[in-house]
Design brief:
CATH architecture of the largest domain: Sandwich
CATH class of the largest domain: Mainly Beta
Helix content: 25-40%
Structural class: alpha+beta
Number of strands: 9
Strand order of the largest sheet: 2-9-8-4-5
CATH topology of the largest domain: Immunoglobulin-like
Distance between the termini: 16 Å
Shape: elongated
Number of helices: 3
Radius of gyration: 23 Å
Order of helices and strands: HEEEEEEEEEHH
Largest sheet: 5 strands, mixed
Length: 176
Amino acid sequence: MYKKLLLLLFLMFIFPFPAQAHTTLLSSTPIEGQNVTEVLTEVELVFVTKIEEGSTMSIEGEVDSFEFDDIEIKNNVMTGNFSETLPNGSYRILWNIIGEDGHPIEGNIAFGMSIEVEEKEASITSSVVDGTASATEKKLAEVQTEKHNNIPVTILLVLAAVLMGYSIYKLLVKKK
C-alpha cells in the first residue's frame, strides 16, 4: 500500500497538470524596453494560453495614467485601443488578466515614447526604416519570450521527481 502511494505521488510530479500551467506573457506590442518613435494607438498583449473576460490593462506614465478607449479579448490576445497621443516620456503598460485556469496574474511592460517632428522627406525615409525595424522588433519579441520561461518551477519539479524516484528505489531495494 505504501509503495502504491509513493508511486502515485511520484507520477503526480512527473506529469504536469493543466492547473499547474499558469499563463505567461508571450509577446507584446510595444515590447519591453522599446523606444516608440511613432504615434501609438494600439497595444497588443499575447499570452501563452486563453485569457478570460474581465482582464484589463492601462498605461501609466511618469505623471499621468491613460485608460484605453476599449479593450478586446480574443482567446489569448488582449488588444487595447486609445485615441490620446502619448507625450514623449517613460511609460508602463499595467496588465491584470484572469488565466484559463481562473488564477489572476498581473505584470507590466516598460517602454518609452520619443516622437520627433519630422519634415515630409524625413518622414518618407523613416517609414522605410520602420519597415525593417518592425522585423527586428519581432525577432526581439521572440527573444523576450524566452525570458518568460518559468525555469525555477521546472527545476523544482525535476528535483522533486528525482527525490521521489530515489525514495522509491530505496524502499524497493530495502524490502528485498
